[in-house]
Amino acid sequence: MELAQLRALRELRDRGSIAAVAAAFRVTPSAVSQQLAGLQRSVGVPLTKLEGRRTVLTAAGAALADAAVAVESALIDAANSITEFHDDTAAPVSISAFHSAAIALFPGLMNASIAGRPQLVLRDQDLRQAEYPALVADVDLVIAQRLVGSEEWPAQLAVVPLLVEPLDVAFRTGHRLDTGDAGGPDSAAPVSAAELRGAQWIAAHDDFPLAAAVQAIGAASGTEPAIAHRVGDFAVTAAMLAASDCIALLPRHTGAAYRGQGLSTRPLAGGVAASRRIDALARPDTLHRRGVRAVLEALRTQAAALAPAERPARRRRGSAAAAAPFRAEVVGSFLRPASLRRAHARRAAGALDDAGVRAAEDAAIVDVIAKQADAGLKLATDGEFRRGSWQYDFFAGLDGVTVTGAEGGVELGGVRTTNRQLFVDGRLGFPREHPMLEHFRFLRDHAPAGVTPKMTIPSPAVLHFRLDREGLAGGAYVDHDELFDDLARTYRDAVRAFYDAGCRYLQFDDTTWTYLCSRAEREKAAARGIRIDGLAERYAALINDALAGRPKDLVVTTHVCGGNFRSAWISTGDYEPVAEQLLAGTDYDGYFLEYDSERAGGFEPLRHVPAASGGRPKQVVLGLLTSKDGALESPEVVKARIDEAARHVPLDQLALSTQCGFASTQDGHALTEAQQWAKVREVVRVAADVWR
Prior knowledge:
alpha/beta
């Protein structure tokens, strides 16, 4: 039995066909079939069978595929442990950066005190945006640039944001655009696209990020920009500006070295794509090297120091939160420990019964509760250790719902999940002994004094949004909209049942809001028979109906998720299309919002959060620390982003968390348990600095 054979079996389970597995592995279908045949010979029982012309797994094959996940996870953990404790921190770390980033970052990096003192191998290299991703095959960290709003980096890359940098219009002093402001772009009057009509541009070469910015400015002005020269070096551009009436774009922070005497700048007015992202790109496995992580932390510190004017000279401090949601938070799920994965693998192999698995779950949950308290959290979850999925396990326990396997899966950033299908084949209801009530009671009984037990369940909107056309066939409901009244009643009963069990902190996990921000996901929903028009308003009404009459001392929050599975995601898009309906139109007490990457957009949608006006003010929990990889964020960068969010909603209505859970399914994200707890402790430390 070989690892490659187990992977082939698992991928057949997940991808549904030998051809799909072959395409994923970049081998022939015959090679995949040979791997499966070799595995079947080694175990001595049939693992696959033919259904029509399609090869599918037998029951034994499915059980072994489940065990294969545990085997591979154990091997990954072992490799991570070797990396964590035996990696040579002094080994060379190679970095490539485009010219202006190299000028701004490399000198400070060379003089930085970096843990382990790794040898730096630096090079500057300007590339077209499409050329950066390929460079990670040869370079550990690639410092790349792209315009805000442009095509994202490929999903298979690890992307660590370093800086969002405004682009300013530069010209010689005395130019018609010169307003005489001596304080730089922060104090100069913004220049509109209309004012730039007819100007002669010095632009970047085609396909380089800043060239597209000039085109966007032209489009905003209603005229084609007049490009007189194409220059790829800011030093040359600056010299040419001083000698002519041309204009150009200069980066505000990394371009400080080019802003010599005789040049002036003005910021661009709103409505134009006038900022660029500076990101560090890497292969995900590269970030598991301690030396690389140390260098990345130094890079973040250097990048944060480039824009001091964007942070308050003296940071405001908020007050501590005495009740949920707390200033330092976690979403809910944690990586399954090795003991629990082994227990599930043994059950799949027939070597352990359900009672044995339950005992392993109990022990793991007691341990994860203690670790949360030790990290300084004032809340605790059970890590969702008793669930295979954050959503389907809850739905399967409802009256009138059946959950089955299904063809194919959901595509998340190039990773395909194991799919499930929902069928509403009877009247919806919440049973008096739903399995998760007992899950909560165990959590309640083992949470230490001073720690609030928090229960997480999927939102009612998720059930509605996940239903296919066939999901209602032959059941009690004619169409999707007919579900709403019974779905709200079911959740009212669930809220009351958890409250009666002692729950005072309940969270609805919800992917639907981010899906509604994605045109592609809206189109898929329409194809499933869901009426898209006004859906955000109807979901807000559904949630409010579900929360109607809840006890006043019960805190109910929601985690708005973009879909997370093995460090990949589904939805891309900022919250603006649904912000008013979600933040102002629902009766939640708090909102966990993912803000770990540019996919979530800016903080401007937070302006819809109602101001505190007596009673319990709504809270926004900023998910600024990613749970998709183990690299730690710079505390100063996180604090600066909290300050930025506080421009749109008061600081005392904000809190901090990781962007998502660490294991929305049994598979978990691509980081170690040690890295997971380092993230949690970082949340607690940063929150303590910001709020008292």
